[in-house]
């Protein structure tokens, strides 16, 4: 185990990244198979660089925020490209995600209100019957 903080390291093994981010090595290999990460290889060993670690942080943040792998891939494809394009795509995807979450929240609030009304009606009937 190394005492060097991850941010200052240059090279990472797959097991180090998995441990640091609390994910499986299989998940990292999956992201690699989807073209989201591209570690170097020394024989059968994967060697990840700072860039791969930064991309993994973005992938995991995107997944946590509910973005699809396609959305994340589109964003990462602009990683080395025009910053304006990247920011515009991010803003567009964030707006879409916010709109979806707000619709879901409204649906949840409606469902909760209806369930409370049903519960109240059931309790009222029980009291009248009792």
What does this 3D model show about the protein?
It holds the Pfam family MerR-DNA-bind. With 130 residues, this protein is mainly α. It folds into 2 domains: 1-67, Multidrug-efflux Transporter Regulator, Chain: A, Domain 2 (Orthogonal Bundle); 95-130. It is built from 5 helices and 3 strands. It has helices spanning 14-21, 25-33, 50-64, 69-77, 83-129, and strands at 11-12, 40-42, 45-49. Strands 1-3-2 form a 3-stranded antiparallel β-sheet. A hairpin with a 2-residue loop joins strand 2 (40-42) and strand 3. The longest helix is centred in the last third of the chain and has 47 residues, at 83-129. The radius of gyration is 23 Å and the shape is elongated. The termini are far apart. The model has no long low-confidence stretch (mean pLDDT 91).
Characteristic key phrases:
130 residues; mainly alpha; Multidrug-efflux Transporter Regulator, Chain: A, Domain 2; 2 domains; 3-stranded antiparallel sheet; 8% strand; MerR_fam; DNA-binding transcription factor activity
Sequence-ordered SSE layout with sheet pairings:
Layout: E1 11-12, H1 14-21, H2 25-33, E2 40-42, E3 45-49, H3 50-64, H4 69-77, H5 83-129
Antiparallel strand pairs: 1-3, 2-3
**Poorly predicted runs:** none
Strand line-up across the major sheet: 1-3-2
User: Beta-strand percentage?
Assistant: 5-15%
What is the share of helical residues?
Answer: 55-70%
Distance between the termini: 69 Å
The Cα radius of gyration reads: 23 Å
Query: What is the CATH domain class of the largest domain?
Result: Mainly Alpha
Q: How many domains is the backbone divided into?
A: 2
User: What is the total tally of β strands?
Assistant: 3
Average pLDDT number: 91
Oligomeric state of this protein: single chain
**Alpha-beta content class:** mainly alpha
Number of helical regions: 5
- Helices and strands, in order, run as EHHEEHHH
CATH architecture of the largest domain: Orthogonal Bundle
Shape by Cα distribution: elongated
Report on the biggest sheet: 3 strands, antiparallel
The CATH topology of the largest domain: Multidrug-efflux Transporter Regulator, Chain: A, Domain 2
């Amino acid at each position: 185990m190394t005492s060097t903080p991850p941010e200052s390291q240059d090279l990472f093994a797959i097991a180090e990244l998995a441990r640091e981010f609390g994910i499986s090595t299989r998940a990292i290999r999956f992201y690699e198979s989807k073209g989201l990460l591209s570690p170097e290889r020394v024989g059968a060993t994967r060697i990840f660089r700072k860039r791969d670690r930064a991309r993994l942080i973005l992938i995991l943040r995107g997944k946590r925020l509910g973005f699809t792998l396609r959305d994340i891939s589109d964003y990462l494809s602009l990683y080395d490209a025009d910053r304006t394009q990247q920011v515009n795509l991010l803003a567009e995807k964030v707006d879409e995600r916010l709109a979806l979450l707000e619709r879901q929240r409204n649906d949840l609030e409606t469902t909760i209100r209806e369930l409370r009304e049903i519960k109240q009606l059931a309790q009222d009937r029980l009291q009248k019957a009792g």
